[in-house]
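Translate sequence into structure tokens.
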Amino acid sequence: MTGSPRREPIFNAPLVAILTAVSIPALFIVQGELPDGGFSLAFRPSSLADGQWWPGLFTAMVLHAGWTHALMNAAGAIAFGPPVARLMPGVRGALGFLLFYMACSVAAVLGYGLLHIGSHDIVVGASGAVFGLTGAAMRLLGRRDGRLRALTDRRLLGISAILMVANLVLGLAGTLPGGAGPVAWEAHAFGYLFGLLAIGPWARIFRGRSGFDSRADPGDPPI
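Result follows.
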């Protein structure tokens, strides 16, 4: 009599991806205890011109406009973070994942700021980072060995186009579901593009020898 097959865990996302997702609502709770609701730490595009961009360029990602905003980003992080985290295993990989997440946010906020450099409106949220994870995850779509899809891959381009059209429609709608505030769709696009392009060299630095097998695949450039 053979033994029963080993059960696969229902939820086996890497710990760093889980903690990243959980940190979003957790930090929103902390934000509510700050004297001004934390919005003095938000990013203003005009700060790029007046030299007051520090620390808002980096702290905007830990602030949110409301529970809807925070929970949507947490859901996005747990949906798209795990495949990216699995690409970079171990302690070194976890550090690489967190740095990648933060870099996506900075790229998204900076891109938005440069487009709206005269604006005094504030920008908050981890959406740019989450869209960066989404872009990186799309490079792994359908792959089980960690090899990235080529940037010219038709499936990748098609899905990216659909996502960006949906992002534009959401931005033109003017507000998030639940009335959490206007949507900085341009920041989402910059974050997605950064994640799409940066995941290759980033993973090469942080994955180490214990990462996925990345044997050559015809038409799929090495990372």
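Note: Helices lie at 15-31, 47-50, 56-59, 67-87, 90-115, 127-138, 154-173, 185-206.
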